[in-house]
Design goal:
The chain is α+β, with helices and mostly antiparallel strands. The chain is built from seven helices and six strands, in the order αααβαββααββαβ. It has helices spanning 3-19, 23-29, 43-50, 64-81, 114-121, 130-136, 181-199; strands at residues 56-59, 87-91, 106-110, 153-162, 167-177, 203-207. The strands form two sheets. Strands 1-3-2 form a three-stranded antiparallel beta sheet, with helices on both faces. Helix 1 packs antiparallel against helix 3 and helix 1 runs antiparallel to helix 4. The longest helix is centred in the last third of the chain and has 19 residues, at 181-199.
Length: 208
């Protein structure tokens, strides 16, 4: 499959992934309904990584069995169907950030961005900084580094603007500082243009 077809196939596989669960399992995965399945869709992050816009995406469901199932039923079939094999995945072992434990989470990464993940792929580190994570996930901002930065933090969301269905699907979200807003808008416009050209989808930006 070409790039656009691979993206569309991944979207279908992800929809099927959620349809196969019973109500009890969905409640477990979504933390008893604290999240909605549509809030946990990764097709946007996959598309960004497929296009080489970002080095990698992180799969971090509630436990390793769900991560494993997602790889087996969504990611691997999409990888297999790709005409040009540019994506790989890696199950993280014994690596943490300041915010979370990444053990048994999974990075899907573009071969172009492999260098950024080398320490993780070869298990040379036990902890990575938030700055490194931001680089790996191509986030143009950062979490507050001190109490002084908390009031100036903004949340950013890139939406898939499904004009035909009059609905928005969150594709990615991250934190920035007020001073990083201009850089973020430029970052978004680049993603917006490439996704329109390559996938034929519209993106919308929210900064709040």
């Amino acid at each position: 499959m070409e790039t656009k077809e691979t993206f569309e196939y991944f979207c279908l596989l992800e929809k099927q992934f959620w349809r196969n669960f019973d109500k009890k399992t969905i409640e477990y995965i979504t933390f008893q309904g604290e999240l909605k399945p549509e809030d946990m869709l990764l097709y946007g992050e996959f598309g960004f990584t497929l296009l080489g816009l970002k080095p990698a995406l992180l799969i971090e469901f509630r436990d390793e069995s769900i991560n494993k199932l997602y790889i087996e039923t969504v990611a691997q079939p999409a990888f297999y169907a790709m005409k040009t094999k540019t994506l790989e995945y890696h199950v993280v072992q014994n690596v943490k950030t300041q915010e979370s434990d990444l053990h048994d989470c999974v990075f899907i990464y573009n071969s172009q961005g492999r260098m950024l993940l080398e320490p993780i792929l070869h298990e040379k580190v036990s902890e990575i900084s938030e700055e490194t994570m931001a680089s790996i996930l191509d986030y143009p901002g950062h979490l507050p580094r001190s109490e002084r930065e908390i009031p100036t933090m903004k949340t950013v969301i890139y939406f898939h603007d499904r004009i035909d269905k009059k609905s928005l699907i969150a594709l990615t979200s991250f934190a920035i500082q007020l001073s990083e807003q201009e850089k973020t808008v430029t970052h978004f416009k680049h993603y917006q243009q490439v996704c329109r050209d390559k996938f034929g989808i519209s993106l919308k930006l929210l900064i709040q």
